[in-house]
Each structure stands twice: as structure tokens, then as C-alpha cells.
Amino acid sequence: MTTDYKNTVFLPKTDFPMRAGLPQREPEILAWWQEIGLDRRIVDVRKGREKFILHDGPPYANGHLHIGHALNKILKDVINRSQHMAGKQTAYVPGWDCHGLPIEWKIEEDYRARGQNKDDVPIVEFRQECRAFADKWIDVQRAEFKRLGVTGLWDRPYLTMTYPAEAQIARELGKFLMNGGLYKGARPVMWSVVEKTALADAEIEYHDHVSTTIHARFPVVRTAAPALEGATVVIWTTTPWTMPGNRAVAYGDEIDYAVVEVTAVAENSLAKVGEKLVCAAALLDDFKAQAKIEAVSELARLKGAGLAGTVCAHPLRGHGYDYDVPMLAADFATDETGTGFVHIAPGHGADDFELGREHGLEIPQTVADDGSFYDHVPLFAGMNVLEDNMKIAAILRDHGGIVARGKLKHSYPHSWRSKAPLIFRNTAQWFISMDTNDLRKTALQAIDDTRFVPASGQTRLRGMIEGRPDWCISRQRAWGVPIPVFVSKKTGEPLRDQAVLDRIADAFEEEGADAWFASPPSRFLGNDHNPDDFEQVQDICDVWFDSGSTHAFVLENDPELQWPASLYLEGSDQHRGWFHSSLLESCGTRGRAPYDAVLTHGFVLDQDGRKMSKSLGNVTAPQEVMDQYGADILRLWVVSSDYSEDLRIGPDIIKHQVDHYRRLRNTLRYLLGALDGYTDAETLPVERMPELERWVLHRIAELDEIVRRCTDDFDFHTLFTQIHQFCAVDLSAFYFDVRKDSLYCDRPDSERRRAARTVMAQLFDCLTAWLAPILCFTAEEAWRTRNTGPADSVHLREYPAVPAGWRDEALAAKWAKIRQLRRVVTGALELERAEKRIGASLQAHPAVYAGADLLAGMQGVDPAEVFITSGATLVEGDGPADAYRLAEVPGVAVVSALADGAKCERCWRVLPEVAVGEPVCDRCDDAVAAGRDAAE
């Protein structure tokens, strides 16, 4: 009777499919997590342990998630899960920004589409519409975040629009009011004429814009420098509309200025032959070209310091602008562009304002909130500063005020919502002082005390704090937390009364911030203050103050959380956004930062490095990636990228991630198949294991150290690279390849097979834990293939404790030499296959030539087993001249030859012991007999 040897081979067997089917499988796993209450259990299982609290930076609740949201939330989840695996208690409370212009703008867009005017709607009704809009999108985004595999306390998120949150924001504002840090002042702020409100730096983006430029004349009327008598100072500006607000001209003390007489001009030049003009010497040629001046005669040259005390006339003197224009020294005046002179409009620029305040200049009010000039502005009343720039320049030209006019395409600030250009506009706003109570100094010290990842974030944030002006926290809008302040009509000073603030906060706690608009002032002022004596502020608070205060109403007073947070994590734009506002708010009220560490990630670009745009058709939507490939592919993309730089994504990159995923999944699948039927009774002690298994344990110990270090360093790019290389190179291409013969063909109780299965059980335990924070769905699926308890989740585990005794550097060095030898043998066998001299490596018996040092590494090791051949001969020496060699592995030569004997029908090795009538080798005969005995 012929034996069917195929049925006696122990082939891998598992229900873990090769095809992942993630788009279908992941929702099933999510449903099971919901069923067992995994989010809650992740918190509870580590009670009493050291805490790691990542405080969530709130996204706006105003639309579907984009790929940047996916990057941010996945990175946060990988960090939370890895810290949990490292044994710490994590409690992640997701949050949303619900106030502010992004949501209000959406409601206004609906109004405009219906032909309605927002101002005709009662403010409380309008605010309720904003609240309902935010509520709708919170539900949508919550479902989308959960689909990414993000674990968190989703049943109790924080929202800036909840009544307790609004109350606490009011209390935080009240602290600045009471300590004198909050004040009202008029100064230029970045203003949106479309949205009719001041904007914060983080609400601004830069786009190309074509500006009208002018070179304007400022005739000298008084000077101590004889060379300037009868001369005209020329300035250059890209904002002609700011000329009505001019009150000075700035120069640089060290700049060389030339006084020239125009001797020839081209046709259509606005310059006049015979006029004396003053310009920086280094910029004279450029100025002449733009003004179409063909020739000049230089009359004098002087340093900027020689201009001290000079007074000019406004270009429109005699037409309503009859004041003197002093010339003032300023560090920001350079000879890099323009004319070396800067026209100073204190109401339209930060530098201008500071110089004007230093010298007591008037700060005129010229531009209304809609971008039009006030009626009192001579010549320009009613004109729009953005739409009528050409007309403004023409009026200046017609009155002899300019020497040249042109156009310039340059980067210009725009609102990131309306996409409209912005202006600097002087307006009365509420500010938090950077110097009162030493806020700047406290914030700079807090930055020095904070860990930044990457470290460059510290320098960036420090530079912003060092040079920033006072914090403008007021907005002229409707949806947000009102600035809870009453102003004395008599003195103009804000009322500082803690009892009033407490009544306001209590009302907000019970009814929300709508109470400010729905209640009479007497409700808050109480019996101590006459409502007729006070004006109630109607501005709302900057949404960045809202989000900057989240630490106060999320982290404090929650026993599962802690203040300060262990980590804040957002994109690099948040150095001027949430990191910035949180730092200032906390330093101003608590004297330190609300975080111990700050992590910054880059932006997401398309696979060619371009910004994503619907018009370019290069947008990658996370929903589409999940529908086609699954969320684990997106998670793999996040960790395989270097988040400290801008990340790229697109169809080709996603397919590359799918290949990475397939290798990792196949590793888990192979382990599961090889461990079919494995029990603890099969475990072999380490001291009885072959060297190869002990080498794998050494590699596990090395990887364990790397995983833990990368977890602490938030370095998931290195962690992924190391794990992927371990699976693809050390395991699949080497260890599994070498050991498959033993796994399939050794008798079940052989120590070699038991050692391999013992090590593979350790590999499975470690890899599922190491991969769980990254491939959260796949690790769960793999783990539950072997662990089927009703609530046995991989995400409730810790990183396995790896014995220090597994490290063996000498053994690692030895097996590094063995793998070098194997590499050359593998190359030689591949050549033999290509030449069709062999079909499989088991047909071969190579002779391997090497030096004594390399061959010493093979001591105690079966070379045929390592090379996956039926035999091998090791020879000390250089080898024949025609032997196979690899340049990158010097000193090794291989001569290929066929193995002697016949092919074993069970293990396929070619051995002399397999003779006619004896179809299997001795080992296989023994294994078959053992299997037969076990079956009987």
C-alpha cells in the first residue's frame, strides 16, 4: 500500500485569511469594541498606574474630516495606545471647537443664499442656529474619527459650547480682568472687511495678490541739512489706500541716501525735469527705471542720521492734508526694496503703530469696518480700500503726489475662510497685555521648561512670543463667549468686581452664554452698581482664547485626567495657534504652561509635493481610502512617514503602504499557521534551544528595547522601520525560511520543532503587542484568532516583559557571519536556478570557501539547514577562480554542485539514504511512524 506522505506533513493551518478585507472587517471589530466597552476598559485596566494624558486640540465642528484630520487623530491614537501598552493609564477625551467665525460664516452663507440679512435675526436665535450646526457636525466627525480606529471617551467629549465650558471661559477672562492684564485700546489689527472682524494670526493664510504700487512725493519743508533744501523725499508702498493715514516718514540711520536732480525723463514719466529727489543710493537705479527717469545729476550724499529733525509735507498738502510729516529713524527701514524710506501710517501697521506711539503721533481713524473710508476723509470718502486702489492712486497722481505707479504680484494675507484680502486697521479692541504681570517673561520661561518634539518647535514658539504684540482677544461677531465686561460710561474703565464676574459665570453655567444677550444688565451688576452708569460689552471672545482655555475645563478637577497635560500634539501651524494661546492663557492665570511636552507634525501634500486642491484633482480623502483599503492602511501611512516633515500621500504611496501591510499581515498569518495546536506543554526552556532560536530571542530583546525607546520618544517612523525590517528580513526571508523544514517535517516532539514553536509563540505575543498601537484592527483580529475569550482584546495588554537574559551579543555577532555566508550561497543557487541546472535549492550541495574566521562561525551549526540545501561542504581557503562571489561579501566563494542520492518524497531533500524502494529519509520515516503511533 502506497503511503500519501503529503498528509503526514505538518503544514501551517489558520483561519486568519491572507486577504484582509479590511473595509468589511474593521466595522465588525469596531462593533465588538463597542459591545465590550473597550474605550472605558482601556482607562479602567490601568487604574493606579502613572498617567499619560494627551490633551486633544479641538478641530472645528464644521465639515467632513480631511486627510490632515486623519493624520492628526491617528498620530494621537498611536501615541495613546503605545503609552497604554507601556503600562501607563491613558484617558483620551476628544474635543471640538464650536464657537467662532468658521461656524458663523457657514450660517451666514445660508442666509445669503436665501436673501436674508443676518442683522435682521435676533442674536439669540442666530446663536441657536450656530449651536445646532455644530451639534450636527460633531456627530458626523465623531463617527469618522471612530472609523479611523481612534479610541477615546467618545461618550463624554468636551465642547467649547457646553454651558460649563462657556462659564469657565468667562471665569478665565475674568482672571485677566481682575489682575489688570485685560484692557481696551485702539491699535491696528489684521481686519477682514468681508467678515467685518479682527482676525488672529492663526486665521490668516497667504496667497499671491496683485497690488497697485506708488512712489509718492513728500516735499521737505524744514531741515537742518542744506542738501535737502527744496528736495522731495520719495517713498514706495504697495498700499496706496494707507496714504490718508500717513503721519511720518521713516529712514535708516546707517543708510546712504542720494540727493539727485532729474535731468531727463522718458515719455509718460510722472517725474519732472529739474526736481530734486531723495532715494537710497543702493536703490537709485531701480527707482529710476520704475519712474522712467532717464538721467539724473547727483547733488549730494548723506547718511540717514543726517536727516534727523527734517519735516516734510504730505503729498496731498492743500487738499485736506495740511499737517507736518516728521522724518523719524527706524530699524525696520532698509535699502533692500523700495527707496530706503517707509511711509508711516500708525493706524495701518504694527511697526508704524509702535513708532507712532514712541513719538506721540496722531493715530487717525480713516477706514470703517467694511473697508470704506469714513466720510471725514478728504478726497477719498466712501471709497473701498481694496476695490478702489487704482482710483486712489489716480487721485494722488492727479494732485501731483506720486512720481511713479505700477503693479506688484506678491504674497499677501487673506482670510482662510472668505479667502478675501485683509488690511491692517486701527480699531478699538480688547487686549491682554504681554508685559503687565510679566506675561511675556513667564511664557518664555515656560517654553524653556517644556519638551519639544521636534526640538526646533521650541525656537519657533520662543521667537513668536519674544516679538509678539499684546494679544487682541475681541471679535465683532455674534457666535462665541461674550467678553463679560461692563465699562464705566464716565471713566471708560472696565468694572473690576469679582461678585459681578461670579454672577455672570453662574448664569452661563445654568443657561449658557446666551444669558449675556438675553438678560438685563442688572441681573449681573446686582444692587451695588447702577446699570445706567455702565456700557455692556457686545464683542465676543477670540475663539483662540476659547481653545486656549480648554485645559481649565477639561484637565482640572477630573480625577481620570491631570493638569498639566503630558502632551499637546498638533500641526506646525499651531505654534501661532493653539500651542501659543494655551501657553499665554495658562501662564497668565497659573504661571506655567498647561503641558509638559509639545509635539508638532507637518502638513499633508500630494505624492508630488504639491498642496492639495480640488481644482488640481489631487485631494486624498480619508473616507475613500478606508472604503477601498481600510483604516489600517492610513494608520500605516502615518507611522511609516516622518511626521516632523511634511507628509505626502497619493495613489502610488497608498499602494506602497498596502505592500508594507501585506508583509506584516503575512508574518502574523505564518505565525498563526505554524502555531496551530500549540499549547504551553510544548514549551522548551531557552537553555535547551538551538542557537538559531536563541538568536531570534536576542533579536526580540533588541526590538523590545527599540519599541520602548521609540514609545518614549514618539518616534514611530523608526519603530515601524525596525519592525517591518524584522518581519521582512529577519523572519520571512531568513528564520521562517530556514525553519519551515523542521516545522513541516520533524516529529512533533522533536526539540528542534518545539524550540521553533516556542519562539514563534513569543514572536506572536510580541508582534501583536508592538503592532497593536499601529495596526489596531489587524492586531486585534490576529490576537483573537488564538485568544477567543468574550472580552479578550489585544488592546488591554501591555508590552510583554522580555527577559534581559535573552540578549546575547556574541551569538548575534556569530550569526551575522553565518548570514553573510548564506547570502553568497543564496546568490549562487539563484544563478543555478536561472541556468536551469537545478529547480530547487534542495537539489544542491554547494562547497563554500571562506577564511577561518568566517568558518568558525559555523561551528555547531548544520550548514545545509541554514543554506536550505540537502548538503554543504565548508572549505577553508579562497576557492577556485571561477567560483561564485559577491563583491559586497569579500572572502567567500561558492562552487555549486548537485546533491548525491534520491529525493525524499516527504521532505524533498536529496539524500544518499533514500534508496530504491525506500521513498523517504530516515528522519521522515521516524516522523511518520511517530505520527502513526500517536494516532493509534
TrEMBL record:
Q: Which residues are in the Aminoacyl-tRNA synthetase class Ia domain?
A: 29-649
Could you name the Gene Ontology cellular component terms for this entry? cytosol
Domain Methionyl/Valyl/Leucyl/Isoleucyl-tRNA synthetase anticodon-binding per the UniProt entry, residue ranges: 693-844
SUPFAM superfamilies to which the protein is assigned, alphabetical:
Anticodon-binding domain of a subclass of class I aminoacyl-tRNA synthetases, Nucleotidylyl transferase, ValRS/IleRS/LeuRS editing domain
The cofactor note reads:
Binds 1 zinc ion per subunit.
| Protein keywords | Aminoacyl-tRNA synthetase, ATP-binding, Cytoplasm, Ligase, Metal-binding, Nucleotide-binding, Protein biosynthesis, Zinc
Which residues participate in L-isoleucyl-5'-AMP binding?
570
Q: Where is this motif: 'HIGH' region?
A: 59-69
Q: Where is this motif: 'KMSKS' region?
A: 611-615
Q: Which cofactor does it need?
A: Zn(2+)
Q: List localization entries.
A: Cytoplasm
Record keyword Aminoacyl-tRNA synthetase present: yes
Q: What does the subunit section of this Swiss-Prot or TrEMBL entry state?
A: Monomer.
PANTHER family linked: ISOLEUCINE--TRNA LIGASE, MITOCHONDRIAL (PTHR42765:SF1), SOLEUCYL-TRNA SYNTHETASE (PTHR42765)
- Domain commentary: IleRS has two distinct active sites: one for aminoacylation and one for editing. The misactivated valine is translocated from the active site to the editing site, which sterically excludes the correctly activated isoleucine. The single editing site contains two valyl binding pockets, one specific for each substrate (Val-AMP or Val-tRNA(Ile)).
Family listed: Belongs to the class-I aminoacyl-tRNA synthetase family. IleS type 1 subfamily.
How is this protein named in the record? Isoleucine--tRNA ligase
The species this protein belongs to is: Thalassobaculum fulvum
